[in-house]
UniProtKB/TrEMBL annotation:
InterPro entries named in the record: DUF1579 (IPR011473)
The protein's name: DUF1579 domain-containing protein
Domain of life: Bacteria
Amino acid sequence: MSTPTAATPLASLAGRWRGTSRLFTPWTTPAEHDSDTTAVVTPIGRGNFVTVAYTWSHEGKPCNGLLFIGHETKREVAHASWVDSWHQHEHPLTCVGEVDASGALSVRGSYPAPEGPPWSWRIAIETPDAATFRILMYNVTPEGEEMPAVESRYARDDA
């Protein structure tokens, strides 16, 4: 029997999901944009890795993204790569963080700002129960202030 890894709790989310996504754009009016969202969670590599492929829309235009999540068990470090058709276009954001005992993921990567020091992007996946999960994304200033960027809430899609 294999030892459970921190990715294993996320592997329990395997399947199809449906919900709502909220994009926060404080520089626009309105500052919040809601859309329908779908996700497919797929465990790979004996459940040690997970992909989360999702769809959403902005102003009626379809968008999609992918999270690839893994875990380095000896150092208790989670790794993720993230791409999204609206947020970035040419390369994935590489993130590092952790998965806690409850199965909640928190990873963070940095990106260059137009001026000044780099900013960060934090991605969290919370699994309050077996029937729901949330993806939360935050834009993080160089000083460490987090601002909500995305909140997606999912429920199992049994259709």
